[in-house]
C-alpha cells in the first residue's frame, strides 16, 4: 500500500499548498509517508521534514526525495519509524505531524496512537487526512480510531470549503488534532 499516492495524500498536499498552515522553517514529521508526496510538498513550502515509514519503503522515499530536490526550499530526509516503537530520535516534538490514509489496519491503531502520544508536544498540530471508506471493517476501524484518539486529543474537522478548490472530495476528510491540555 506504500507505493501508491492515495487520493487523501493529494488532498492533504494540496491543502498544505493553500497556505492554511505556516510551514516555512517549521519542523514537520510525516507518518506512514509511503511515496513521501505529502512530506515533499511540505518541504517545497519551506518546512524541514522527516518522512517516515517502514524499512521496505526507504528506497522509494529516497528516490522520490532525489527526484524532487530541485523543488525543496526547506529540507527533507527519510527515516524508518515503526509505529509503537521508540521515538527518542524524533524528539523534540515537531511543529506538525502529517498523516494521509493511515487508518485502515485494526492491528495498527494502538501502535499508531502510542506513536502520536509519544511524538506530540503541547504545540504540535497533527493533520490527519483520510478517505472515508464504507466497505468491510473500515467504518468500524475508523470509529474505533477516533474514539481512542479522543482520550488524549482534541479534534477539529477542517471544513470542505477550506480544502483546495480542485483537490477535494466529500468523502475525504482533514482533521486537525492537538493534545488535550
Automatic annotation (TrEMBL):
Keyword Oxidoreductase: no
CDD domains in UniProt: AdoMet_MTases
Coiled-coil spans in chain: none
GO MF terms held by the record: methyltransferase activity
InterPro entries membership: Methyltransf_16, SAM-dependent_MTases_sf
Annotated Gene3D superfamilies: Vaccinia Virus protein VP39
Keywords in alphabetical order: Methyltransferase, S-adenosyl-L-methionine, Transferase
Entry's Gene Ontology cellular component terms: cytosol; protein-containing complex
GO biological process: methylation
PANTHER family linked to this entry: HEPATOCELLULAR CARCINOMA-ASSOCIATED ANTIGEN (PTHR14614), PROTEIN N-LYSINE METHYLTRANSFERASE METTL21D (PTHR14614:SF44)
Listed name of the protein: MT21D methyltransferase
Organism: Quiscalus mexicanus
Amino acid at each position: 500500500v506504500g507505493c501508491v499516492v492515495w487520493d487523501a495524500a493529494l488532498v492533504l498536499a494540496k491543502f498544505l499548498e493553500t497556505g492554511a498552515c505556516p510551514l516555512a522553517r517549521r519542523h514537520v514529521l510525516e507518518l506512514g509517508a509511503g511515496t513521501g508526496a505529502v512530506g515533499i510538498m511540505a518541504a517545497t513550502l519551506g518546512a524541514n521534514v522527516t518522512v517516515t515509514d517502514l524499512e521496505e519503503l526507504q528506497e522509494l522515499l529516497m528516490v522520490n526525495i532525489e527526484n524532487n530536490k530541485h523543488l525543496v526550499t526547506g529540507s527533507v530526509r527519510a527515516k524508518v519509524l515503526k509505529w509503537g516503537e521508540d521515538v527518542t530520535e524524533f524528539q523534540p516534538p515537531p511543529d506538525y505531524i502529517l498523516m494521509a490514509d493511515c487508518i485502515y489496519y485494526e492491528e495498527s491503531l494502538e501502535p499508531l496512537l502510542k506513536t502520536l502520544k509519544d511524538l506530540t508536544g503541547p504545540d504540535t498540530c497533527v493533520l490527519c487526512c483520510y478517505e472515508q471508506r464504507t466497505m468491510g471493517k473500515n467504518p468500524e476501524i475508523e470509529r474505533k480510531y477516533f474514539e481512542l484518539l479522543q482520550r488524549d486529543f482534541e479534534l477539529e474537522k477542517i471544513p470542505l470549503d477550506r480544502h483546495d478548490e480542485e483537490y477535494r472530495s466529500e468523502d475525504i476528510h482533514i482533521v486537525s488534532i492537538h493534545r488535550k491540555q
